[in-house]
Amino acid sequence: MKVVKVLLPAAAENCYIAINEDTNESIIIDPGSAFERIKSAVESTGTKPVAILLTHGHFDHAGEAASTAKEYGIKVYTHEATAEELKNPSINLSGDMFGDSKSYSADVFLKDDEEIDLAGLHIKCLFTPGHTPGGCCFYFPNEDIVFTGDTLFSGSVGRTDFPGGSMSQLVGSIKSKLMTLSDDTICYPGHNEPTTIGTERIYNPFL
Question: In this model, does residue 171 exceed pLDDT 70?
């Protein structure tokens, strides 16, 4: 699997394109803003998008999910607990940041530890609330890769001062869901640079 990062302008958020090089299909993760930039990046890969994954409902991660899904005729997947934060502007922060309250949506709501196959890739949805009430991570066990959204960063963790946030819940989620993965697992976070589980296990001051 090849991973392409697309840095988007809303809160300098990382959108990712996860590519199955065998099938030439791709999965778009957290298309938050600047639809044309996302479209250009997808087209530059020459792949066929088959799905969108959302790690949580904040505007900078979910803001362009609908337009991206419409462009490619694909579905949006997220954890079932994300439904409320997607549709509620006071939780997804669209009104707070832009004064333009918006509601977002998804098509498929996954349960904790539910496993699915998309683009010929095997994916496990890990429920990791704390940054938001419905936050999740997407683990690709065969590739030893996890997309952590705003749950875990290099040397840090997600903010918990937004509506529904909880530091104790977030740290608990990371310890129970992410720190059980192998040290070699590569983490692609929603902001800043990639890291590994092993690095965070040793050096992350929040853990």
Answer: yes
Nearest to 64 by CA among 46, 44, 41: 41
CB of 198 within 8 A of CB of 170? no
Q: What is the CA radius of gyration of the chain?
A: 15
Distance (Å, whole) CA 96 – CA 140: 34
Tell me the C-alpha to C-alpha distance, in Å, between residue 187 and each of 39, 83, 120, 190, 194.
Answer: 24, 24, 20, 10, 6
CB count within 10 Å of CB 199 equals 15
Q: What is the pLDDT of residues 127-146, one digit of tens each?
A: 999 999 999 999 999 999 99
How large is the average pLDDT for residues 61-87? 97
CA 93/CA 101 separation, integer angstroms: 8
Of 122 and 95, which is predicted with more confidence? 122
